[in-house]
Amino acid sequence: MLFYTVMKPLVQVALRVFFRRIEVRHPERMHLLGPLLLAGNHPNTLMDPLLAAVNRRQPIAFLAKSTFFVNPIVRAIMESGNSIPIYRAQDAGMGGPVTPEQRAAQNEATFGRCFDYLGRGGTIMIFPEGTSVSERRLRPLKTGAARIALGAEARHGFRLGLKVVPVATNYFDPSKFRSDVLLNVAPPILVADYAAAYAQDPDEAADQLTEAIRVALERRLVVSKDAADDAFVQQIERTFGDHLNPDDDPDTLYDNFQLSRTLLQALAWAEQTFPERLTLARAQLQSYLTNLHRHGLTDEALDGQRRGSAVGLLNLVFGAPVWLYGVLNNYLPYILPSFVAKRATKEVEFVAPIMLVMGMITFPLAYALQAAAVQHWLTHDWRLTALYVLSLPLSGSYALGYWNTLSARLRRLRAAQLFRRAPAEGAELLRQRAELVGQLEEARTAYLTAR
Questions:
Q1: What is the average pLDDT across 317-340?
Q2: I need a labelling partner for 38 at 20 to 30 A (CA). Which of 74, 221, 374, 412 fits?
Q3: 186 Cβ neighbours under 8 A, 6+ residues apart
Q4: Considering its fold, how many domains does the chain have in total?
Q5: Are 212 and 317 part of one and the same domain?
Q6: What is the span of the domain harbouring residue 46?
Q7: Crossing angle of the two packed helices 202-218 and 144-155, in degrees rounded to 10
């Protein structure tokens, strides 16, 4: 618990830096009084429990796979971080030979610890999918969460008041720095409602509760049929999101979530209704994106035949020294986490956690070394050094925003040059885009009419 208490504020800051926006829909459900069992999907390994932990005031105990507890140092960190080992069949032998009977006994002990923790009014989080895979799908849920919830209630004669709260975590780009994440929290499920079913058949009651968790999660997740459909829909979102969602509310991510769900549902409908037109649309989109890439452009840049405002240009000119200062002071700790993550793993779901942990090391270390160097060789005054340290994260944040603005302006200028140098090619890009947007609008109208 000491590690959990000490690290939570630091992790909260790190997550707020890593993600551009973290939105919790129905946050009051995350703060319900215990006993509580949070059941979540698991697309992004370490990020999923961390996001839950920083968005609930009360401590959370996490069920984690037993392989994390093999190394004595990691085991000490996990236990002080309020984690409880769960022993999965696929992990057998990783910590030494274990018979099925021994594993069953270990899990009985784990269940007993969970019952005790919940019985004291605590909160436990579990990921019923059992594994973490970065894809916008919900894999079949195991019944462990339901069995823990029912077992804890049965121990107290179904008068404990335990609630299960499904937490659906939607990442808009799980491995990208400064992306968005939406925690879509479902209404609580009262475990006592399954008392009669449990009395008749505990296994059937566990299946029923697991199904209720699955339905609640699936209703609050972006769920794709397969990787190909998901990639196609994400291409449409990133290319034509502004056209399809013109009334985008900048104060919420929920309308972006709804757009993703609607597109995937519409895609499934189109595959049944007019598969030939859909195949043609896929090819046309790929051709359009290839042509944009060939010219170093984005769809947004085509709107940028305008030159931009004079104020924006002045900000770029006079902001350049601040940008350079921010880059010089922050580039190394910024780039190292990405460098390490890309070489440490090829699995997308592990990239973001590695970047987060590395960033929590590289930035404080770099800032401390820079502060020591400035104090020793330049200022010799702790007040000036303190001002310098304060300028580091501020200038780093400014440099990131400045670069994004500059990149967008450069793409707009590139588009303007294309239209001057090769107007026929520019006109062809506009024709392709207009045709695709028209087809999307027609498909949306047909889909909404058929619903």
A1: 95
A2: 74
A3: 29, 165, 166, 167, 168, 216, 217, 219, 220
A4: 2
A5: no
A6: 2-218
A7: 120
